[in-house]
Please model this.
Amino acid sequence: MSLKVGITGGIGSGKTTVCHIFEMLGIPVFYADDEAKKLMISDEILVEEIKTEFGAPSYFEDGSLNRKYISDIVFKNTNQLNKLNSFVHPAVFRAMESWSSQQKSPYVLKEAALLFESYSYQQNKFNILVSCPLELRIMRVMNRDQISKEKVLEIIQNQFSEEKKKTMADFFIQNNEEELIINQVLDLHKKLLILSNES
Ligand code: ATP
Model:
């Protein structure tokens, strides 16, 4: 069984970019946020839970998710958001378990934006935090997603602070313009190979 390692970081910190380097080293990555979106259409238990809780309009006739309908509900109501998360997180956990049991590498990565916020980090042996200076993150996300600075800041405000996340992580990657991420990934990869051998 591969060792499970979580990887996270605030919006625009570069966690997906870092994961792509791990993938080049042969480490499989489970992209939990992308997977969650797929499961909301394909996981029968999850689909049923969503329909029961939020009603038939949650899905279109062709089976695709009515994202606008669902996001309008959960955006206005934290209880409903918590409810949705309480359905989605176990489905992602089930998918991650089944996926990781099929992997042959010494360790696997689970990338999730809200790894600490959702407490799913507790399911991993180790967790990596990718950090990047705030101004650089804002600039990169504005460029990537063509959204305003205010919108990026709004998303950042809904995530745990860097200080809090630092106390919860085991390993750190600095994605600033001074230290090359490739070297940091190589160093961490060597450490994780040793740790996975020991466990
Ligand atoms: P999100 O939480 O929104 O998914 P993320 O943490 O996965 O973001 P990425 O998508 O990896 O972040 O990076 C954000 C943007 O910054 C991307 O356009 C990416 O190409 C760019 N970027 C990331 N790291 C670097 C870097 N070291 N040098 C230049 N550009 C970078």
